[in-house]
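Format notes (please read before filing issues)

Several people have asked whether sequences and structure tokens are stored in separate files. They are not. Every record keeps both together, in the order shown below: the sequence lines, then the token lines. Line labels are part of the format and must not be stripped during preprocessing.
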Amino acid sequence: MSEDELLDGLYPYRRDYRTYRAIPQDPVDRAELAAAVGFMAGQEDAMGDEGLVSGSLYSGDHDHYEFLGDIFSRFSHANILQRDMYPSATKFEGEIAAMVLSMLQAPEGGASVITSGGSESLISALYAYREQGRRNGITRPNIVMPVTAHVALDKGGHWMNVEVRHAPLAPDYRADVAAMAELVDDQTVALVGSAGNYPHGLIDPISEMGELAQERGLGLHVDGCLGGFLWPWLEELGYDIPPWDFRVPGVTSISADTHKFGYALKGTSTLSFRSKDLRRLQYFTKPDWPGGLYLSPGLAGSRSGGLIASTWAALLATGRSGYLSAAQEIMTAARTIRDGVEGIAGLEVIGDPYFLVAFKSQDPDLDIYLVNDSLKAAGWRLNALQSPAALHFCVTRPNTAPGVAERFVADLAAAVAYAREHRGEPADSGAMYGMGGTPQGDQTLNDLMTSVLDMMLEPAPEE
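Then the structure lines:
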């Protein structure tokens, strides 16, 4: 790949629009700005609107987006830190919390907070358990979780000096609870399980984890960021969903993302606790600051009222019937995709999935990343995995459009044929994977990813 091709990939509009490196002297015409944004939005929505994207876009209904955008605009300027000015935020936030607690079967006394996304929910939960451990005399806190638990917990552990201990998976690709038990010691503050995990969409054995948590006197956080707004409806529809919510003894907190299958705008999630006492551990208060009494329920201080209002509206505008209907359509499409994968020689579905279908190669001569290259050329955007090398398709509402799942199965069969024809050639979508697995390779990858982030956080270079 040439330098120009790399730059065009990172900065696709660098040849179309002026690059700003300083605030312009005079205001830019609003119509000009609106036209530029409209063009970019249209270009970037096209793939998702066709239903060719795994995950990422969960609703796909532009009328719904417009409605939520209108609600957002009424409070986009509002800082809900200032509740005396914007008391509506208390109504919106409190009712979101109550609706989610009801959905998650929380007991009397349960409590919830609204966060900016799944990562903040997970890191906030980790913080609460760290603080609980400190009160109990723990000085070197650790958490124990399967290797498939979300990497945001590793990030939070790095930031907060909490050791993250990774347990292997059982043969069914779910957490090995016996292996987790071996990693628990007197400094462990919590266990983590997923419902479902990001790589494979599987629900860990939460009931067994709950028993372990109770036996050892630990907290148990269930990461339902991905599936938390699907499992309740699938259970109501009659699907056999393993126990995972607050009905499981030992579960002490659950994260669930409103901005995924809750069909809210990006930037909100929920973190729910079995008790208010545990929730209070994530609060920050400073009564003696010269600026006045300061209190915050989480990391953010100022927060836009637009996101809170539009999330409240999303839950109410969708309603139980809307969530049930969407869940059934998603499962129908996912079943078509799973059956299609299972019918293609050389591919193997990972575990026993529901709405997210992960699959790998059974044949050592079949490079799954070459399969991905062909799918990308056909317009699809799947998520590439490692350990083991695999792909996954997280089915969302845009993928439920007529013919989309069937088209994917046909293109996947053609992609497998392509990978066999090009056996031994390096895959574009997995070219860097071979560098992992050794300290030198891992460091090279870290350096490369850091450099890419540097580029993404800077404007396009001058010609």
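For reference, the curators noted about this record: The longest helix spans residues 305-342. Confidence is low (pLDDT under 50) at residues 431-441.
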